[in-house]
Design brief:
The protein is mainly α. The protein is built from five helices and no strands. The protein has one domain.
Length: 117
């Protein structure tokens, strides 16, 4: 498996496990406070379960040539969609430091997947 795919696998797996174990930490960067069980459930689902699923999907695609191109494209487009949403948000209101860091991370991760495709 290539380094670009592994970097994405490690990122999504790390985010996913962290979100399942400590949901408050994952969203603390942007000052979201999941105070209720429903809010923590949402963080665990979106950042945790989804992140781990993407990590597994990327790991499988890294080994299966038939899946590789489509999976890498789909995950890259999802990451670029997140980045585009941030750009729109930046145009609407001033964001702090972390959304900019996440924009760069999402763009780099997407670029790595497109490069590996």
């Amino acid at each position: 498996m290539s380094i670009g795919i592994w970097i994405n696998v490690v990122f999504f797996l790390g985010m996913g496990v962290c979100a399942l174990v400590r949901p408050q930490f994952v969203v603390s960067f942007v000052k979201l406070v999941p105070e209720t069980a429903d809010a923590r459930n949402e963080v665990r689902a979106v950042y945790g379960g989804f992140g781990i699923a993407i990590a597994v999907l990327l790991a499988v695609a890294g080994q299966d040539v038939g899946l590789r191109s489509g999976v890498l494209l789909a995950v890259a487009v999802a990451l670029l969609g997140m980045a585009a949403g941030r750009v729109v948000s930046f145009g609407l209101e001033r964001a702090g430091r972390w959304p900019w860091v996440f924009l760069v991370m999402e763009s780099v991760l997407a670029g790595l997947l497109l490069w590996e495709r």
